[in-house]
């Protein structure tokens, strides 16, 4: 079974952790590149400073270096190194090289004006970078003309000088490694924090659902004023609660209808059974009464038929509830109406103005609907009244309308209950022929064949309209 809570915690934790890890990775890469670039810029800056200390005049090349101001080139530990070549010969090198067994930096020839940075092992064994810079020494502006005349007179050219400056990268790499460790540690910490916070937030957010679940467990359909409260709930749960309340209302209504229907069925069955018991007791008590013995079989048969009709109609109603019927019969439904109308033509006026083509539907359903509506009009209208039966069409759909005068005054509430099973206007149920199932069967059949039925009441005239789809 899939857990929404676990999936939510897992997806949020993984997504947030991945986002944070990605951000940390980008920061780490950017920071590494920035540090490397800054280190190289510092190499170039220090090399340019050393180049600026080299000058030349007619007396030769002069390197104006002072270890007092650059102690990194004088010490033995954590030292930096430089070396100058004049042509192919070593011209000058830092004192820090003298402390090492390998007291010289590697020579790499370069064209004048070029720079080159390489990774190398420094003389003290540390990893570092060496920048090579090929240049010509600067000449004092005042002495420049004299210097160039001197070179021309000597038939010489200004020599090219190669500078090599080396510095260790281990401190910088150590800081970057430490930062990488901090980033990784921060990532793991954030992952655990995210999982912890998300799990607690999800659990906190699910508290209203858990409370709702506990409240639902306590619900009894028989309780009065059965409603779930939507107070102090999050906005997202309000529609959910409203839907549950609507569902509860529907089930409450069905429950009440079921109770009423059960009571009505018991009443309908109790009456004929009581009659059977009474008849039997009379015959047993007065065995010599010939009249009772003669009427007994006929009365028992009549009561039995009433029981059979009630049970048959209840079974039919139960079979039709919520089920559709096939509509693959093709028949002339006008002919069916004429057959149903014929026994009552002294009371029914048939109004059929147009020829309607054969209907493709369920023959049993259509015939039962029309028969029950006609019987209902006959039974619940005054004996001398006239019933109007109209056949026409709405578009291409057959339409039947049955209008009659009612014997008893009806209300709007009566119209709403008219299609309920076992409902009768006569609450005393004095009728021995009607059980309040005919119109309920009509409504169920109409629903089963997608027919539309409606009832209207104008004063004491009631009309049933059926539109067959």
Key descriptive features of the protein:
alpha+beta, 469 residues, Heat Shock Protein 90, 5-stranded mixed beta sheet, 3 domains
How would you summarize the topology of this molecule?
Blueprint (H helix, E strand, L loop, with lengths): L3 H49 L1 E4 L2 E4 L17 E6 L2 E5 L21 E7 L5 E9 L8 H11 L6 E8 L1 H48 L20 H48 L4 H31 L8 E3 L1 H9 L6 E5 L6 E3 L1 H17 L7 E8 L2 E9 L6 H6 L20 H11 L3 E7 L2 E7 L2
Helix pairs in contact: 1-3, 4-5, 5-9, 6-7, 7-9
Average pLDDT taken over every residue: 80
Identify the overall geometry.
rod-shaped
The total beta strand count reads: 14
Number of domains: 3
Helix content: 40-55%
Q: Give me the strand/helix succession.
A: HEEEEEEHEHHHEHEEHEEHHEE
The quaternary organization reads as single chain
How far apart the termini lie comes to 44 Å
Summarize the structure.
This protein is of the alpha+beta class and 469 residues long. 49% of the residues lie in helices and 18% in strands. The strands form four sheets. The chain has a five-stranded antiparallel sheet. The chain has a five-stranded mixed sheet with strand order 9-11-12-14-13, covered by helices on one side.
Can you offer a commentary on this structure?
By secondary structure, this protein is of the alpha+beta class. It folds into three domains: 4-176; 238-320, Helix Hairpins (Orthogonal Bundle), CATH 1.10.287; 329-467, 2-Layer Sandwich (Heat Shock Protein 90), CATH 3.30.565. The chain is 49% helix and 18% strand. It has helices spanning 4-52, 144-154, 170-217, 238-285, 290-320, 333-341, 363-379, 412-417, 438-448; strands at residues 54-57, 60-63, 81-86, 89-93, 115-121, 127-135, 161-168, 329-331, 348-352, 359-361, 387-394, 397-405, 452-458, 461-467. Helix 5 packs parallel to helix 9 and helix 7 runs antiparallel to helix 9.
